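user: can you give me the structure for this one chain? C-alpha cells are fine.
assistant: on it. calling the predictor now.
[tool input]
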Amino acid sequence: METILKKDTAKDIWDSMKQKHPKTDFEILQLKVGESMNEYFARIHTIANKMRIHGETMSDVTIIEKILQSMTPQFNYVFLYGGVK
C-alpha cells in the first residue's frame, strides 16, 4: 500500500499494481485438486511469462524450485524415490 501512495499518477499506480499481481500469484501458487500436471505447468508458465513481461528477472531454476515446493503430497514418491520405474 505504501508503494502505491508514493505514485504520482493513476497510470503509475496501475503499472505498479500490474507488476505485483503476477508475483503474488506465483508466490501462492499451488497444485489444485483435480488439476492435471499439464494444466498446472501451463498455469505456472503463464504467470512466469507475465512476471517477465513486467520486468521481473526469473531463472528457470526458480520456476522449477517453485514447482517442486508446491506439489501435493501425492507426488512425494517422485522426489523421495526418484520416480516411477
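assistant: here you go. Residues 10-27 form the longest helix (18 residues). The chain has five helices and no strands.
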